[in-house]
């Protein structure tokens, strides 16, 4: 039993079919991809080549900082001499930040892949991508990495994983969202997210024992499909 595209569609209400989410030019770091990244940041975010080069060089890779996006496109209220970039550039900056905080969150929590920016070049095409399928593949890849002994962190959209667990397993620690509005909010909003930055070993072992001791009657195999049939 694992997360399916059907689960993603029901929980997040984002497309799981459509154009493939892939950018070949930025698959790995080379002198050419580094140069292309600088030009792309300058063109799509409306900054000078010099500013784009400085930012890309800070990360020594094909990324930009989230704090840089914030300072450039979310100036503080009341700031003087503020120059606002074109609407299209602002929209791309916002979407880039959003994707990096949700579907494609990385372990750093502070950087954004420039490969995502390439997908935002044509704003009319943004809604045509299979974002849900890409997010699931990205999560699976990092779940696989997280099983290694030496790995202590995980990347991916953990809200998706958390919501899926709450829907399918009766673990006793899921907190329903009293303000959840069916048919208005995404299904994943039905649960209150946990925000524990540190979890003690005893709690981890307790959860493991609960999972290991689950009986078939405590697993809702078709939880989301049952919900879909009722709509």
UniProtKB/TrEMBL annotation:
GO terms for biological process: meristem maintenance. Coiled coil: none annotated. It comes from the Eukaryota. InterPro entries: AminoTfrase-like_pln_mobile (IPR019557), MAIN-like (IPR044824). Residues 1-221 form the Aminotransferase-like plant mobile domain. Pfam families: PMD (PF10536). This is Aminotransferase-like plant mobile domain-containing protein. It comes from Stephania cephalantha.
């Amino acid at each position: 039993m694992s997360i399916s595209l059907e689960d993603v569609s029901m929980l997040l209400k984002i497309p799981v079919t459509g154009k493939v989410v892939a950018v070949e030019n930025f698959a790995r770091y080379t002198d050419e991809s580094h140069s292309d990244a600088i030009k792309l940041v300058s063109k799509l975010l409306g900054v000078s080549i010099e500013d784009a080069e400085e930012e890309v060089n800070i990360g020594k890779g094909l990324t930009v900082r989230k704090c840089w996006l914030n300072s450039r496109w979310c100036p503080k209220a009341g700031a003087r001499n503020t120059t606002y970039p074109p609407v299209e550039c602002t929209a791309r900056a916002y979407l880039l930040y959003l994707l990096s905080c949700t579907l494609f969150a990385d372990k750093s929590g502070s950087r954004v892949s420039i490969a995502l920016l390439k997908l935002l070049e044509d704003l009319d095409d943004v809604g045509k991508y299979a974002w849900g399928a890409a997010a699931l593949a990205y999560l699976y890849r990092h779940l696989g990495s997280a099983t290694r002994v030496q790995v202590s962190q995980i990347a991916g959209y953990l809200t998706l994983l958390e919501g899926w667990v709450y829907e399918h397993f009766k673990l006793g620690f899921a907190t329903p969202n009293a303000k959840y509005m069916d048919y208005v909010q995404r299904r994943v909003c039905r649960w209150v997210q946990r925000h524990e930055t540190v979890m003690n070993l005893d709690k981890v072992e307790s959860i493991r024992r609960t999972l290991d001791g689950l009986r078939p009657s405590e697993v809702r195999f078709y939880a989301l499909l049952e919900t879909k049939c009722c709509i």
